[in-house]
Amino acid sequence: MNASLLFAQALNGLQLGVLLFLLSAGLTLVLGIMNFVNLAHGSLFMMGAYFGAASFAATQSFALAAVAAIGGTMVLGVLVERLVLARLYERDHLYQVLGTFGLILVFNEIARFVWGQAPVFMDVPQLLAGTIQLGPVAYPAYRFAIIVVGLLVGLALYLVIHRTRVGMLIRAGASDAQMLSALGVDNGLVSGLVFAVGAGLAGLAGLMAGPILTVQPGMGEPVLILALVVLITGGIGSIRGAFYGALIVGVVDTVGRAFLPGLLRDFVERSFAQNAGPAIASMLIYFLMAAVLAFRPAGLFPVKHG
Description:
This protein starts with a helix and ends in an 11-residue tail after the last helix. The protein has 306 residues and is mainly alpha-helical.
């Protein structure tokens, strides 16, 4: 196995992991604090990608695209939360699943109506169009920037969650929302703040993914499935769990897809390995999730109580 190729694929896994973290961080807090199943979170990722791509096409400024993607999804998230989701907070999870699934269909149709069925493409910013040398590997500068941005956001979230009063309220809500309400804290305000921040992070993930993925209707659903795997693996309601779970899922998925087909060729005939390898590699993260559910139902890094 080539060490340089392994290092490059590990970096790709890290890049996928930080994108999943940006998406799953808000989702895990919404589920942990509000006990609300929001399947429409992936649609915010999609809308962030569209907002960013449209703004970048109009201005050729990635900074303005970032403002449009993050700000636009935060505003959209608050509107959806206030007008639709707030009515489902006291309902059974089945109503929440059905309601937010309906929002997925609505957002996909809005995207088709506004931007059309054809994919929208977003160029890599000129400043990050080249490569940087990381040891023996010439790695795309933009993908490395995604890693840096994701790690900085993770650090910022850690400091906010563990070093500020707002973070204390968020952690208390994730541990015992009823007790927090009994102490006189407005759970609705905390929930709205968490939802807005989560929407903004989903928009940031969509913006960063825009130049490396195809921006098109329905692009949020596959990423949402991966984010749910991250939540189960890391621990629902835990930012730390979302971070480590996203890195684990990202590396396992990327490295498995890159090397498992080649490894199978050593044991089975080449044609079978070429067909079975990618299929087995795509299932690795679900095997991982099943193992976590079997042996650590609360996740590998659950919320600490008490």
